[in-house]
Amino acid sequence: MNRSCCLFLALAALALDAAACHAQEITVLTEDRCASCSIEVTPDVVLGTDGESVIGYAVDIQRLSDGRFVMAFDDAPYEFTVFSSDGSEYRRVGRRGQGPGEYLHVWSVREHGDRLHVFDRAGMRMTVLERDYEVAGTMPVVCFLCLAGDMAMLPDGSTALSFGLPAPGSERVSSPQDLIAAERWLTVHILGEDGQPRLSMDEADRTEGGEPVRHLEIAPDGSLLSARLTEYRIDRWSPATGEHLESVLREADWWPEVNPVFSGGPDQPPPTKMEAMHVDEAGQLFLYINRPTRDWRDHVETGLPGNVFRYRPGATEWLVEVLDMEAGSVVVSQVVDAVPRLARFFAPGWLAVYNDDGFPQYRMYRVRLQGLEPA
After folding, report:
1. How much is the pTM?
2. Of 20, 66, 358, 363, which has the maximum CB count within 10 A?
3. What is the pLDDT of residues 146-164, one digit of tens each?
């Protein structure tokens, strides 16, 4: 089946969903490239030179509005580190437990106003901290296993969280097996003050494979954006009603028609994945995509213990695409120089590259769009 036919079927399926649920707009991106534009990546501060503040590879990295950086780690899941903007000072926040200011597995830290919202996925709760890190409040989060993807703070202070919840009509869930067996998942949820999902949206079929992970972002108009991991598709939602407002699709020759979450073997390319999505101050949408290189076969290592294989550096590359959502166009599409397995794009305009030579640390880079003239 050719790509045009596949795109037509996808559009038809979306149209049927729209007719059954809410009116929505389908936008297929055009390529309106800016000839004078480029993505510039420049080195900035190094965090972790003290050998204590960076505790291994970070599961979450954020930059706060005052320039501070926040990191959460799997190696010390009960705390997170807050760095000064120049990396000269840091504070490790939290301790193990289930009391106030205690955590089991910090997964996401997000800013809203002067407060930090800390999601503990193992403890299944949200803690709100004042600027001095004193606890302002804690609420339970009602999620099954809390296999969370991304988290975003809405303008009114509500929390949007990505995790799998069986859609109405699916099997009742009491175990991980039940969750996997559910025919349909709801993947994006807006939590009420009681921790219960006030609105749930973005229904997905379990045949997509993998965890029901979504990247979340707030658009300049206050709508909620969700991006799928293995599809080039951005959905726009009303956070007030849960209405599906728009689906943005892209027809790209390099995006595979069959794209499983995990590679099927050493003869198969690494999957193409949407790794992050951010809106910059100008309202442009940055997408960070990890895809196979042309010579990925030359970077496959086989014969490892257990008859396993792995992709060595050079098997994948980072592609940055910048979208003008209002115009429905791709403004920039550029491969940037960063080692995919060590690099993490976070917050609008930042890249963190991990280095554990001697002790864990991160070099922060600024990611800027250059050459775009103001509208």
Report:
1. 0.89
2. 363
3. 766 799 999 999 999 998 8
